[in-house]
Dephospho-CoA kinase (Rossellomorea aquimaris), 201 residues
Amino acid sequence: MATILGLTGGIASGKSTVSDMLLNKGYTVIDADLAARQVVEVGQPAYLAIVEEFGRSILNKEDDTINRAKLGDIVFHNEEMRKKLNGIVHPAVRGLMLSEKDQAIESGKNTIIMDIPLLFESELTWMVDRTIVVYVDSETQLSRLMKRNQFTEQEASSRIASQFPLKEKIGLADAVINNNGTIEETEEQLEKILNEWDLRP
């Protein structure tokens, strides 16, 4: 039986770094963010549903792709519209991820990583057997996000506030990787978890 591992964290917590480490070790990583981009490509069912709901003004003129910034502005300030968007995108993302998981199991993989930023917020723990949270303290999270996205402190704070606090996620996780230190320290913690749980690619 394959083990399905849920990897999560907060914005700018270093989850992608851990995800890359797992890929480099030969693990299959199914990325929710990547799936979310794939399901809204031009012509996909979710894309057509979004255009029908939000109108063509959210599209880029040159190639009809969805302008994520325009769509983001609409839903960031409107809870009802955000729910409508999530109602279209989330089921499509789940469907794609589950079919990729089934393919990985069929090809003989022992461990499959589901990289899901909003694993707890979206109540998707039913998709996985165990969970790992990548944690940083709030000061580090804020400064990394400001640096990475060129956000003001206010912009970064509001993005962080829209997610579960990382401290709460720790209490929900089966294992925690503290990513406040060096890359080497993070990798050591990951290795320890994989060994303790006897998880092979």
